[in-house]
Amino acid sequence: MKLEFEGRVALVTGGASGIGRACAWELARAGADLFVVDAAAEAQLAQAENLLKAAGGRVVSFRADVREHARAAQAVEESLARLGRLDLLVNAAGTTADAPLWELSEEQWQLVLDTNLKGAFSYTQAAARHFRRARGGRVVNVASIEAGRGRFGLANYAASKAGLVALTRSAAAELGRYGVCVNAVSPGFIRTPLVERLPEAVRERAARESALGRMGEPEDVAHAVLFLCSERARHITGAVLNVDGGQSL
Ligand SMILES: NC(=O)c1ccc[n+]([C@@H]2O[C@H](COP(=O)([O-])OP(=O)(O)OC[C@H]3O[C@@H](n4cnc5c(N)ncnc54)[C@H](O)[C@@H]3O)[C@@H](O)[C@H]2O)c1
Predict the structure, then answer these.
(1) Ligand 1 centroid to 97 CA: how many Å?
(2) The sheet that has 59-63: what strands, in order across it?
(3) Cβ(194) – ligand 1 distance below 6 Å
(4) Active site residue 157
């Protein structure tokens, strides 16, 4: 039986850890070939590549910092050269640098905006140039429920994710005529290295806050991302799907 994403190639940024790696894993299990972009150390990237290869498909890893705009076009070129095509883009690379507004440095602001927002812009633009010519493609951006609310210490992060939601909608409006769908998922607290560095009390509060009373797992987000990448979502574009167990209610 043909797997759902057999013959498809997915570029996943942030694919060496957490949510990005879970998306890459689930896509690989569903038959996709993968082009993984991440700034992680060589050893971590190689480990992720080996893990993903165990799912059966072809995997190419590409070490790059998504803040470097020109690398995005190189990544797309390389994925076309090495894997022959590009169908799906998942922008999952992201970071935090939390501080109250009165202590937030320019560097902390810039790091988070450049990684979470400019990085997604660069990769979406590079992929869109190819998708327009190919007259089809899917982009899924990993935003956050913090895009729509105010939380202590998260001014830079919330601004980056709100910008990412706006980028998602504008890209959807521009690219629809070329058969390209652009959507976002907004996770609540998900058990990954990014939140594991937060105090236990903060994580417990997040779990209590959610209607389902639990913290999400990376695969919970990956399942939503795969749906948005699939043919079943062919009439959905410009949408933002919360994957938060009801944390934002
Ligand atoms: N974990 C959560 O609770 C949660 C909630 C909402 C949204 N998110 C978003 O999900 C995405 C993935 O986060 P995660 O929780 O899996 O974290 P993670 O730290 O496990 O994974 C992030 C990955 O992105 C990579 N990365 C970071 N900066 C990069 C850069 N400049 N260039 C290239 N790669 C870079 C890291 O090396 C890492 O592999 C992020 O965009 C994050 O904002 C996470």
Answers:
(1) 12
(2) 59-63, 33-38, 9-13, 88-91, 137-142, 180-187, 240-243
(3) yes
(4) yes
**Containing H/E element for 183?**
strand 180-187
Distance between CA atoms of residues 188 and 19, nearest Å:
12
What per-residue confidence (pLDDT) applies to 202? 87
Pick the CATH number of 9-243 from 3.90.550.10, 3.30.1120.10, 3.40.50.300, 3.40.50.720: 3.40.50.720
pLDDT value at residue 114: 99
pTM: 0.98
Domain extents in the chain? 9-243
Give the chain's residues under pLDDT 50: none
Distance, in Å, from the CA atom of 45 to the CA atom of 179, rounded to the nearest integer, reads: 33
Residue in 195, 198, 180 with CA at minimum distance from that of residue 238: 180
Atom of ligand 1 nearest to the CA of 93: 24
Sheet strands (E) in 43-107: 59-63, 88-91
The alpha-helical segments, DSSP class H, found in 114-217 are: 119-134, 155-175, 193-196, 200-209
Give the distance, in angstroms, between the CA of residue 140 and the centroid of all CA atoms in the same chain: 7
| Residue 160 CB–ligand 1 contact under 6 Å | no
Give the pLDDT of residue 5.
98
In this prediction, residue 80 carries a pLDDT of 98
Distance CA 219, CA 20 (A): 10
Pocket flag, ligand 1, residue 192 (CB < 6 Å): yes
- Whether ligand 1 lies within 6 angstroms of the CB of 33 is answered as no
Task: Specify the pLDDT at position 197.
Answer: 85
Cα–ligand 1 centroid distance for 115 (angstroms) = 9
